[in-house]
């Protein structure tokens, strides 16, 4: 496998949440081969560490169901959401080919059946793939309309027993304000799910945060655009914002598990 990473992982099993915007250039749409290749390289190096890796992909670079339904009175809202779910499969297929081109064995799994291109998501089968060192790419969210892929990530994280959800963003973590608009915004190194909910910080949708809090599932929000940051997150280096489900923020980087 290309560019094997060395080091001791801080986590045994992780879920990486990638938005649809991860697959295109900033401010663009569609799929950028360069961006997909960059994600694939980092994810493949993580897999080479022996970490069990599940990836939930969004589809906003191709179509946002919620936005589409608001912009017209022809396509029903539920239909628009289903269209958005199928968009995630396009991203999943692109990432699968990119990773397998690097020698990383993967399985694309969907909650909407389409056996010609992907396996149906079955929890026991997904766990079997992980135990065999295969990266599973999870598309079509929960398979139900009106539910975001963030919530799908929280659900699958609990279902698959991951140690942490890695929320990939284009900024360095959670800030007091939008750092792309306010240069004085302050980065929070540690937060709790309760603080995120109380302050309505834009990390993941509130349903996803509530689910993580209820299930004691921590979240690490970090800038995946910086080359090597996915590996640094997996190795437990102090990057981004650690969101814990406990009563108080953590005072150090995540411990090894």
Automatic annotation (TrEMBL):
Pathway: Pyrimidine metabolism; CTP biosynthesis via de novo pathway; UDP from UMP (UMPK route): step 1/1. GO terms for molecular function: ATP binding; UMP kinase activity. The keyword Nucleotide-binding applies. Keywords: ATP-binding, Cytoplasm, Kinase, Nucleotide-binding, Pyrimidine biosynthesis, Transferase. The keyword Cytoplasm applies. It comes from the Bacteria. ATP binds at residues 17-20, 60, 64, 169, 175, 178. It catalyses: UMP + ATP = UDP + ADP. Inhibited by UTP. It is an enzyme of class 2 (transferase). UMP binds at residues 59, 142-149. One of its GO terms (cellular component) is cytoplasm. Its EC number is 2.7.4.22. Pfam families: AA_kinase. Residues 13-223 form the Aspartate/glutamate/uridylate kinase domain. InterPro entries: AceGlu_kinase-like_sf (IPR036393), Asp/Glu/Uridylate_kinase (IPR001048), Uridylate_kinase (IPR011817), Uridylate_kinase_bac (IPR015963). CDD domains: AAK_UMPK-PyrH-Ec. It is found in: Cytoplasm. GO terms for biological process: 'de novo' CTP biosynthetic process; UDP biosynthetic process. HAMAP family: PyrH_B (MF_01220_B). Catalyzes the reversible phosphorylation of UMP to UDP. Homohexamer. Belongs to the UMP kinase family. This is Uridylate kinase. It comes from Aquisphaera giovannonii.
């Amino acid at each position: 496998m290309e560019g094997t990473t060395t080091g001791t992982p801080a986590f045994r099993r992780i879920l990486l949440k990638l938005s649809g915007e991860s697959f295109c250039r900033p401010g663009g749409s569609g799929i950028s081969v360069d961006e997909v290749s960059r994600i694939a390289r980092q994810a493949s190096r993580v897999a080479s560490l022996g970490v069990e890796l599940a990836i939930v992909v969004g589809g906003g670079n191709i179509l946002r169901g919620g936005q589409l339904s608001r912009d017209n009175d022809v396509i029903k809202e539920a239909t628009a959401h289903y269209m958005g779910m199928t968009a995630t499969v396009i991203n999943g297929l692109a990432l699968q080919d990119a990773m397998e081109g690097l020698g990383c064995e993967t399985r694309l799994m969907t909650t909407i059946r389409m056996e010609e291109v992907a396996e149906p998501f079955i929890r026991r089968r997904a766990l079997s793939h992980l135990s065999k060192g295969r990266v599973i790419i999870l598309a079509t969210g929960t398979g139900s309309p009106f539910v975001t892929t963030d919530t799908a990530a929280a659900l699958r994280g609990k279902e698959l027993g991951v140690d942490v959800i890695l929320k990939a963003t284009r900024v360095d973590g959670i800030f007091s304000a939008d750092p792309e608009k306010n240069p004085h915004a302050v980065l929070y190194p540690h937060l709790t799910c309760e603080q995120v909910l109380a302050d309505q910080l834009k990390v993941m949708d509130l349903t996803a945060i509530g689910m993580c809090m209820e299930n004691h599932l921590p979240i690490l929000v970090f800038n995946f655009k910086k080359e090597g940051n996915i590996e640094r997150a997996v190795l437990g280096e102090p990057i981004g914002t650690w969101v814990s489900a406990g009563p108080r923020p953590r005072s150090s980087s995540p411990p090894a598990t």
